[in-house]
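Intended use. Records like the one below are meant for learning the mapping from a protein sequence to its folded structure. Do not use them to infer anything beyond what is encoded.
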Amino acid sequence: MTSLKLGMIQMNSAVKDRDGNVAKALAYIDDAVAKGAELVVLPEFFNTEYFAQYWDYSYVDYAEPADGYTITCMRDKAKQHGVHLVATIYEMEGPGIYFDTLFLIDPAGEIVGKYRKTHPAAVKSVEKLFYRAGNRFPVWDVRGMKVGAVICYDHVFPETVRSAAVNGAELVLGPFATNGIPNWDELMITRAFENGVYMAPCNKVGQEGGWNFSGSSMVVDPFGAVVHKASTTEDEVFVVDVDVEKNIKARIAYPFLRDRRPEAYGALVQSDETNRALPTHF
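Structure written out for the chain above:
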């Protein structure tokens, strides 16, 4: 059976210091690899402060293309150590076209996958001002383990992790930039248990502008047991073993994917305009 050493980097990012933040991330990657990591995950927007807390479109200048400084540094580091890296940045696809994009980089330093945030947030932040939404849930083979991803706000929509699981994911990575989600532990435990997957939310921590990020990066196994949970206040690098054998045991014991009935869920894929199950008054 396949097992994988997953490295998680919880970190604070300095304001208006991209190069310093990238250098800090590179040093933490060295630490994770020294601890045995084969796949290393960084938080959402690790290379900048969390700019979407501001209603200020000038921050669009933070966006970088796939061949820009940050991802080039990550590619070189992945190749140096011969590991997989996951780096999530504010991506410029083209002039005026931007996404919140997770890059999967292989041990040869090649970009082998992308996931673009499906639900740009507009609750406490104004992410919809800055970038478009993605609509795909890819799954990649990483050292024999099927790996999917969702980003931050995506986690509160059960359809996202379920889509990754239906597409074959055994481990779902979750780069985050949040200053706190109610019932954080319960949310991640539920997503893991209901899909028979490992969940790995990787958050920022500490003060960035007006926001104080809540850390608590964690790995939850397919039975819903917390394998490791990081501090709420400090940077942390930790490595855990994830094992497909546990996915198999969980899905045999609790065969939710077997028993799901997609033909009965038509209301979930109707537009809001046509879904008669929605309330007509408030």
